[in-house]
Fold these 3 entries.
Entry 1:
Amino acid sequence: MKKLLRKLTGPLLFAIVAIAVFDLTPAMAQEEAGPVDEYLELVEASGAEYAPAFDFFTVSMLWTVIAAALVFIMHLGFATLEAGLTQSKNTVNILFKNVWIISIGLVTYAVLGFNTHYPVDAWQIPGWLGINGPIGDLNADGGDTWGYGGLSLAMTGYGDFIFQAMFAATAATIVSGAVAERIKLSSFMIYSTILVAFGYTIAGSWHWGGGWLSTLGGGDAAFYDFAGSTVVHGFGGAAALAAVMILGPRSGKYAKDGSIKPIVGHSMPLAAVGVFLLFFGWFGFNGGSVLSANPGPLGLVFTTTALAAAAGGISSILISWIVLKKPDLSMALNGLLAGLVSITAGADAVTVFEAMLMGAIGGVLVVFSIIFFDKIKIDDPVGAISVHGVCGIWGTLAVGIFGGANLMSQFIGVIGVYVFAFVFSGALFLILKAVMGVRVSEEEEFEGLDISEHGQEAYNHSNT
Amino acid sequence: MKKLLRKLTGPLLFAIVAIAVFDLTPAMAQEEAGPVDEYLELVEASGAEYAPAFDFFTVSMLWTVIAAALVFIMHLGFATLEAGLTQSKNTVNILFKNVWIISIGLVTYAVLGFNTHYPVDAWQIPGWLGINGPIGDLNADGGDTWGYGGLSLAMTGYGDFIFQAMFAATAATIVSGAVAERIKLSSFMIYSTILVAFGYTIAGSWHWGGGWLSTLGGGDAAFYDFAGSTVVHGFGGAAALAAVMILGPRSGKYAKDGSIKPIVGHSMPLAAVGVFLLFFGWFGFNGGSVLSANPGPLGLVFTTTALAAAAGGISSILISWIVLKKPDLSMALNGLLAGLVSITAGADAVTVFEAMLMGAIGGVLVVFSIIFFDKIKIDDPVGAISVHGVCGIWGTLAVGIFGGANLMSQFIGVIGVYVFAFVFSGALFLILKAVMGVRVSEEEEFEGLDISEHGQEAYNHSNT
Amino acid sequence: MKKLLRKLTGPLLFAIVAIAVFDLTPAMAQEEAGPVDEYLELVEASGAEYAPAFDFFTVSMLWTVIAAALVFIMHLGFATLEAGLTQSKNTVNILFKNVWIISIGLVTYAVLGFNTHYPVDAWQIPGWLGINGPIGDLNADGGDTWGYGGLSLAMTGYGDFIFQAMFAATAATIVSGAVAERIKLSSFMIYSTILVAFGYTIAGSWHWGGGWLSTLGGGDAAFYDFAGSTVVHGFGGAAALAAVMILGPRSGKYAKDGSIKPIVGHSMPLAAVGVFLLFFGWFGFNGGSVLSANPGPLGLVFTTTALAAAAGGISSILISWIVLKKPDLSMALNGLLAGLVSITAGADAVTVFEAMLMGAIGGVLVVFSIIFFDKIKIDDPVGAISVHGVCGIWGTLAVGIFGGANLMSQFIGVIGVYVFAFVFSGALFLILKAVMGVRVSEEEEFEGLDISEHGQEAYNHSNT
């Protein structure tokens, strides 16, 4: 029996199995069509090569789409955080921008972003630039199963697409916070569209699309950025810095006598809702980046992510208490985010105590960074440059220090992506400034963008 | 035997393991009880017929309950959207109504709704009416596995129940928004209970319960409504229209000189939170309607759902900007929802570019529809009739245009369900009006329902 | 051949499949490394003993981490509920406390909580006390698979850790609500740290860590608390009672003439958001406590949880309407939570109608309990003692009445845990009171903790 079995080729064996195990199925299918029949047809149709671990594929794919939904809810987190930390007269504007960003981010990703992010063999400049067109029918090539990515990708084409699409809009959302309260809406809408469609996807292709960052040292010294400390958060932070430098601070923020006027946010509950939702969604952002439901790394990533955030919150609370003499809620909230950005590059590659250390250092960095940028008159209402830009650098380098990545490659990757993001964003912003202006008038800024741009107010408490 | 085994290579070992495992399990169970033992007992107990694809069943069932949780959070989305788009003096009332709706919706669904929605062989008028009693022990008939629904349903009886139960309250929630700010609480509580318990479930039985809509053309031309553009959203929208027509507009909304007084919402952040949560929950609403974790359709449905929403947001932003001369946040938010309703009937049956087109058209429709209903003095504070009713029609017909469904059957389904919803809701509302009144007094309306009905205020910012 | 196969029994067939399928894998692995290869290596490496049901393990582990994320979002629910039901002048303080609690809760759980909660063989006083050190590499002992917990635990070590870690901070969060608006921040931060690190984990070890409550009657009459009506919610409620008794009521709450001044919450939308998020997260809290993706219990637990909450909401609405003469939103919201706490001990052990009855009784209890505690001048701004403490008792005993648990053991468990929580919390609070004070000054309380403790305001609506 044993001998006989060994002689049989895989496909035949599989056929036999199918007959044996599922012999009942065809007959049943005639009576009653349902998911099992469809599922078994898939198994059979896929042939021997892709037969193994079908259920592993299915559960991995399920996780991928759930993770996509979790990353989606981060956009609500960004929207409420940004709204909470700014003035109530600009709230409609901020919410509007965030509806725009997620909408245009998803659509452009289908139209050209996905294939530019992953140029595969369609690079115009190999390893550096590959702008390509719309997605096709991603379920086409046996795409319901291993057919799409082969055994190296436990998700369907649409799973791959929707998870990455949810990431794409993030870069623009980070900028949105930094330029809030004085940017011209129409300019921002054009800026964010181009940034998401081309800027983010080109930079991302260098690492995740198989570009030059993924082949450093012939691949042996490849740049390592698990879920995007650099290629998502750092990109957004560096783009924000360029935009803010060109845009200038909010009116009255920095007086001529050198004093800094605090412009406080209008709703701390809204800000806190935002940060907790971001934390929640980050389980999809990092956890989904395992790219399968492999239980070992999945549990580790959830744990390092949560503990880095917690350590960032604690260190930020303590250090800001010392520096600012008060237990500051904004800093506590930014500390959680700092911890999250700091672990994003290495969530699968460090121990839990390294994760806590990385998060705690991120929580300290963010406090000093926010104070520093305010001192040099870079006016970032929500601290986005510090949270995403500065902690993005730290998180990326930390994988070289703790997680076994090549530290030099990490440096190269940070510099490559940050410089590109800064230049791309800056050039785009300067062009927009020349062509149509990027800033509202001083009167409009004083009146608030809600009235001047939208003719709506965010709150109406006196209506009877 | 043991010696022999040691010599065998891994694969064969694994084979033997499989034999051993399924054989040894009872013995192991004695030593150590745990989920595997229980699981394997289930596999054995189910016998040959249901043995295949056990893990597929398990992962599909997991997705079903997660999707149920996602649909649940849509109720928070509805509550905050409705509260945000109305006046602050009616906020307690709105939140209260939504607590009531989800509570009574779940309980009535257990008491009679589920078995009325799925009458199986207990129709009183076959294909049209089958009002039945409470659910029993849905795990009874080998219900932990394929035993409940056979190979055609990859979920347990409780999975089936809880997912559908979360849908049930939606119809009443849609009406809640349309009648807000002037409806009498006690009347609404009775109305919503009967609507959810009988109206929604009867209409739903025509399609999902195997009723006449599912057998059009002998089943070959069956009405197609994947996740409920018509049988959930359209039902709610049509019911809302009847209710609003009987109830009349809010005082002062339409002046005698023909002018329309805008009554603006009190909190756009609350409204935006609502829409983003609805978008988030819709991944469960549509994704869960795959009714399994089958990776092919699951990825497609997530993608079409997200892209239709995004396209609806964009088209609504652009068209309302042209029509209203301002970038309107309410319209942007309604555009996202319009896109979602528009794709709900065909999320699994169209390409991603068809999905975007369907969503974009929905986003245009909703803008003109809201303006139209306001012109004809149908006062719908949140635009529910337009979002759910009008886009529900569009979404359903669109599956006939793009998705291969029979267009005539789609028409018949829309007319059947909308007319029934309109008549059921209208008759119920007229009876309540005659018996106990459906509207608060003008003084109460002016004072606000929070004080007049609840003796509470939603906000208290001056307390020290 | 076909005939031969037909004769084979099910298990052998499985064996053949295993040979066929896994035989091809090594060859493939050389070509293309990916999750499947890693996954199959795991399967092989784990050896015969742990080979079965790998996919069941994977899907169960996925559910565990998703459930952890759902429990995480409960912390946002607690934060917003507590903020909403209190005055706006204390909102920053409340949000800050909640950032602290989740952060320190996660970190202490890694440093000592987990190994104290589950002392395994490292008890100092067997069955009663086992304080132990930090977690190590929980993926070490073949921890990616059944290696960590054997066949009795369908999750990895990190899955186990992160799910339990999310529970841990809950106890402190419950206290946070009860002591709101007058507690000194620094004292609360120390208190909550010790309560979470030692108090909760020690009490939990008695039941979930294999301690004395799990061995009552030699294990035959073991205390039964499925997801923690007593060991989580009851613990928090009893700890809160001790804290409130020592702390005293808010200034002016109880006048000398015996009258009670209502101090109303500042934002009912925030409170409602909190309760709906708690309801949402409870699907992870109870559903995750199935500790696997076993479809039978999973569907049942989701159903009983939702229906108990709904019944609690309805009964609370009706009874409070009768008692208070008004439909009270706070009571409606607390009714949902009361239903949830009431089902938590027995969610897997009762029928759906028993679940509704348990929830409905919880909803009644919470109304009278809140009124009662107010009468005896226990000032609990959010009703935490009633919701978590009182309904925790009811839910635990109800499993003895309806769910087949030993009623005497349930009594013993309640008394044991509640007395311990009360004494631990009280002693800790008294020490803190003596050493550094636990209450802000009357001026600070009057001014609000936001200004006096943080120098920040939660809302700034007049900024231009």
Entry 2:
Amino acid sequence: MHRFLDLADFSREEITGLIDLANRLERHPEPHALAGRILGLVFFNPSLRTLASFQAGMARLGGTSFVITPGQGTWQLETRLGAVMNGAAAEHVREGLPVLASYCDALGIRAFAEGRDLARDLAETQFGAMAGVIDKPLINLESAMNHPCQSLADWKTLDDLEVPRHGKFVLSWVQHPRALPLAVPAATVHMAAMRGMEVVVLRPEGYSLPPATMDKARAAAAAAGGSVRETADRDDALAGAQVLYAKEWGSTAHYGDAEGDASLRTSLGGWCVTPEWFDRAAAGCKFMHCLPVRRNVAVTDAVLDGPRSIVQREAYNRMTAQMAVLHRMLSHGV
Amino acid sequence: MHRFLDLADFSREEITGLIDLANRLERHPEPHALAGRILGLVFFNPSLRTLASFQAGMARLGGTSFVITPGQGTWQLETRLGAVMNGAAAEHVREGLPVLASYCDALGIRAFAEGRDLARDLAETQFGAMAGVIDKPLINLESAMNHPCQSLADWKTLDDLEVPRHGKFVLSWVQHPRALPLAVPAATVHMAAMRGMEVVVLRPEGYSLPPATMDKARAAAAAAGGSVRETADRDDALAGAQVLYAKEWGSTAHYGDAEGDASLRTSLGGWCVTPEWFDRAAAGCKFMHCLPVRRNVAVTDAVLDGPRSIVQREAYNRMTAQMAVLHRMLSHGV
Amino acid sequence: MHRFLDLADFSREEITGLIDLANRLERHPEPHALAGRILGLVFFNPSLRTLASFQAGMARLGGTSFVITPGQGTWQLETRLGAVMNGAAAEHVREGLPVLASYCDALGIRAFAEGRDLARDLAETQFGAMAGVIDKPLINLESAMNHPCQSLADWKTLDDLEVPRHGKFVLSWVQHPRALPLAVPAATVHMAAMRGMEVVVLRPEGYSLPPATMDKARAAAAAAGGSVRETADRDDALAGAQVLYAKEWGSTAHYGDAEGDASLRTSLGGWCVTPEWFDRAAAGCKFMHCLPVRRNVAVTDAVLDGPRSIVQREAYNRMTAQMAVLHRMLSHGV
């Protein structure tokens, strides 16, 4: 495997094969599999799980990693092509990233959406420009519209807990103090569709996912025997649900417009998951969230601390799933 | 050993056993003892010695470590129970810390005192709330009222230099531009008492250590054949002293009141250790400080650069003492 | 080798011996040569290449490293002797650096020029004060007037590309939004002279390199059969050049005077390297730069992205050259 940028780049069998490998490495650790291998991690945005789980995962496989945080200990990096660089950024990604790649065996990059122009973010313009100058194995640590490591971890978590392949999976918008990127909701709806689930996106008006995102998920669902639809009706969405996956994101109707988003958001205080949300769900309905999550804004303590919550398992599986990716990417041809 | 949070959790024999182990590892390195083991280090506050000595110590035992710094490369973490998280903190320690713990074999946490409510800090409310959600081995890298790694290193330093077990140990308040936490003075007075020393706390009016802190130290002294008292009389305190341990801390009479503390502090410029402080001390009286120290504010260059100063040995012993803790905690049952 | 602070501390044969070792390690990796060895890296200033290449280089030789960034996760460090430390810095380098050195087998320090007093910077006052308190092997990661790791990497790059030993090497000043330190130009002119090249420093009026810097380079040239001169005439400088090495630096006529430097700089927009600069150069003339570089300010995209540019090779050789230094410094007497 040379690149791990999007679950859609792989067949369903390749993804389940990665999860099988993750399960095997959990049962039979390989503490020397990546001996001598070096992973470079570049964070344009903050991280807790991604940083720690990749460093720990490499270490558990016998490899090492280094971390670069542009703007903090390292200069800011410019991403615009053709820029006249007389501003704050001292170095362009066209120099900086190939240099870092030349020091390591694989590179991971986190670069959130710019959040100004939806078409530009949907096209992964920024991440694509970076990926285009790197000739080493590359891992997407979250880009404008994708988070494949999170999705692989979530898929494995659904399998670990034996959630039925064609079960009902509700991705619900939840409240947040401000607009957040679309990466996780876009990746999640596609992941659940690709797994073959009955996917319902529950969101208030103004927060529809982009048509291109929904189309991509529907194509995955069609191939896997699942379905994808959107609704603003909570009762309808949650009836019989086996999974409630909560996520915050910004209004697509006001993309890049913080004030417009904020004006919509003021009336949406009810979009904080409480135990009552599960009244019509299936008996064992699970609560998922990729973390970080704002307690009592997006979800109440009662749900997060209750037995439905599997957020810790999801987070733990970041490490196990990523170890499979690293193993597939770096253990051959040593 | 599952937790290393407070020297008071261990018997005197357990502590001297740790120091014996530290000495053994100095003489007979074990470069593979912790192979495959991962230590997670979480710093809510700045660090130089703790960060470097734990990373180097793990490496010397064949293990690895990763570092998380909330608010810097990682989001700020909320610690209050029941908080409605609509402020700056994006994640609660109730999620973040168990996640990090799930990636590693032991976790170290540094979280200084909140410095507002003495009773709350004395109860270790904040650190306790974090410790309560972690089921992995845990090390206190400095909490509101404790710094067991520093104390173990200091005890070993006293042994290394053959300071008599029942010798006179003076912990003296020294000047600083502002109020600092009570963690090191509280840990130090207890450590010296537990070692069996004649402990004198020398401090100006308004800077008494809390009664609970003194009581805890006195109980340790009683068990070890030592004593603990407080005074504001420098001549009395330092007469015959074998150790002068300088430390800055905030006024307990004005806890959480920066202005009140500052008004007391203005007249205390004389509390900067000079060579003359040692005039009545024992001939070989040592100068100790946990570092960092502000030269010519807390202590003059002449003392720090002179032969009495053993601050470098203390700092070096952070690594050797912590290696014993890590070895005891992580080398069994591999 | 105990210290790697300045190429001038070594004979020409010792430097070519290091490059031979770097070449050997490229062909025949030694993944266990530095097993158990620990490198401490202290960055008073930002870094991308230095941080990543040292961490990766140590890992490729089986060693480990830790990173300390004063002012970021670690307190600010004071460097002035005799300072009364009642300001922002919580710790003096006289304590902090020996402590860090005691945890590791070698220390690397980056501390840019203070940029106020040229004589003080030329004397390496600040770096010298730090080096003077460290008794472990020490590497200069860029000081006020030197960057020996960059120079060793550049020398190796010239050899890799078979640039003739006595070829014409032009170090040219280029534009930047503000005054930058003299470390790289000073190190580069000395390196090229020591290699035996015909060195021309091309710079506008007001940007002469300091006489002491030129004298040092001329002495190296005399020993190696090369030459060193300065000019402001671009045509003269570049005629027949085999290498154009671009670098930004501050006006020595206005050292420490940002406004004076800025007023000179406004009329120097033409000092941005374009393809036309190579019109009179030798056919295969290479473009070098130590990076980071501001595109379309110091050099145009056309040059950086064109076939003359060997900046990526230079950056890659930071790692290979430094691995030779680390191997020579730390692999003996294990």
Entry 3:
Amino acid sequence: MSEDQPIIDPWAAIKIDDYEQVFREFGIESFVPYVKAFPDAHLLMRRGVVVGHRGFQLIYDCIKSRASFVVITGRATSGPMHFGHKMVFDLLIWYQRHGADVFIPLSEAESYAVRGISWEECRRIGLEEIVPSLIALGLEPTARIYFQMDTLSLLKLAYTFSRKITLNEAQSIYGFSGSDNMGKIFFPFIQVADILLPQLPEFGGPRPTVVPVSIDQDPHIRITRDVAERFVSEYNFVKPSSTYHKFLSGLKVDPETGKPGKMSASDPETSVFLTDPPDVAAGKLLNAFTGGQPTVREQKEMGGNPDICSVFEWLKYHLIEDDKKLSEIYHVCKSGDLTCGDCKSYAAELIYAFMKDHHRKREQAKKIIHKYMMQP
Amino acid sequence: MSEDQPIIDPWAAIKIDDYEQVFREFGIESFVPYVKAFPDAHLLMRRGVVVGHRGFQLIYDCIKSRASFVVITGRATSGPMHFGHKMVFDLLIWYQRHGADVFIPLSEAESYAVRGISWEECRRIGLEEIVPSLIALGLEPTARIYFQMDTLSLLKLAYTFSRKITLNEAQSIYGFSGSDNMGKIFFPFIQVADILLPQLPEFGGPRPTVVPVSIDQDPHIRITRDVAERFVSEYNFVKPSSTYHKFLSGLKVDPETGKPGKMSASDPETSVFLTDPPDVAAGKLLNAFTGGQPTVREQKEMGGNPDICSVFEWLKYHLIEDDKKLSEIYHVCKSGDLTCGDCKSYAAELIYAFMKDHHRKREQAKKIIHKYMMQP
């Protein structure tokens, strides 16, 4: 979102700045037309987080005609979910409410092969940290969540696909080096199989599928669409569609740019985790980087800058559903009528309330996990 | 077996000629001491087909002390079994009678990735061609036969192992090229997992394991022993042992050497298949290359040469159990008292009887296949 953009107008054409060039180069299309076409577009769509897509028309048509389609996104079992991950599952739940069959692979193969986490720990993280939060966020039990290593048809499908990709191709797509372990090198095939698994007859058969991913995941999408094409005669696959979302910023300033840095699972202060106690979550927002002036006096004179403020980003993407309310805050910040202290207190209150509710729902969720886990 | 060796003395030290050099280089040990140590050594042991080993003392000790051990060998689902394959399963059955837990992976991953055979055809070949012959050869139902792609714990184990082998290592062992497909590149890990699977707790836990293979399979054995070591802290694996057997010759002469050529599944005249009708099998032996002289007169004067004769090899490794009988034939051939015509007729009679019995047993076997197939 650019600074000169009236961010509170959900239907305005969204400039995607840094992304436009990349999109043109790789043949990704703008998501803007769909933002306008859905009267109840998700706030991450209408506030410019979902910026691009491949083949989304198929999904739009399914939603409009109430035809069967799939949404799928995976979650690595390498640690608890933070609010960057939450965003994707908020979208998933939106699709579920619009008729999608939801599939969620718990991507333990990646956690094991790339991060060296033991199978036992992958299992624990999946069942104790991730799944309860997915349910607490509002996922309905028609969703099918699975561990990759529990799912024979997935592993067989991954191996099936691997026959039609050469080592050279895999290396050119993923840039493997000789010192990479073979698990890391085979993992992408499991990920490709995750996306196409729902189209096997026993999981509902061929149908449109949307995969919401961050921009950097586009190579996976391209190879998956390519594999779908190479195996179309055997499986009658519909080429999967994708949407691309921006990264959300972290809570700490990047000293080089003076703007919020990245969220990083390895630095707990850069984000809020869905397992953080409410007061810890609130404390993180109270300590967050803002777009305010050095003193209250300067703030009152010159106004704050919500466009580079991580607290405002939190309000925009997670804490305030109401567009009018968000717009008000944007303007009183810019005009200097809102101090960062007051704004952070407000954000902290909201996240405290959210987390308190989330923890209560997580405890309830733990009793019904089995309803969501796909039977092998 | 060299020409100056009295092949009919099962306890004589066996010279392994071409193999000795290779063995010394790669640290393979001679099997001869064990031939002498088993009063009931299998004819393929005592007649010099099983020539080398790694770590066989472990297996010997298990047999002597009636301790639990495993024998495992796979069979690719790329076509019916010929007598070269039969040899390995004759050994397997010998081990089973000496107390081994038998595991037989039907190696459809290889057939699919390397030979491009569809999963459906792999399945058909396994169930209709291979398994009935395994049962007919005398395998007891305690054996566990499985399709690789039915076996979740196998695929998980293969992936588990792949984390501790780099692409460079895999390439140096197997000599992959960039144009090889990724299925072929991942396949060896499935094969390594086949060998170590029986040591998982649910399949009987850590214990000595012997893998009878032909010499060219030693790289697989070396990497498997290496993997067992790298994962010993997680699984407590006992390093698998191996025995090495010579290739059996084919029924046709190699024009370059003047000796019998190779058995080749792609040239049906080079071997007898366990699915051949009895008269076809007999006909193949009647047409086989022998070590005889050009004319009967010359044969009577100079004698035949059983040491380069494919028919004699068939008698020695498959058709005559009795050492004394085999010795007689060897000598009457050498002395010129046996013509090739009579000898081939005799061999043809024996194989006709064997195949007739084998087909009868195959038909019975088809009704009890389920007793042998491992439940996923």
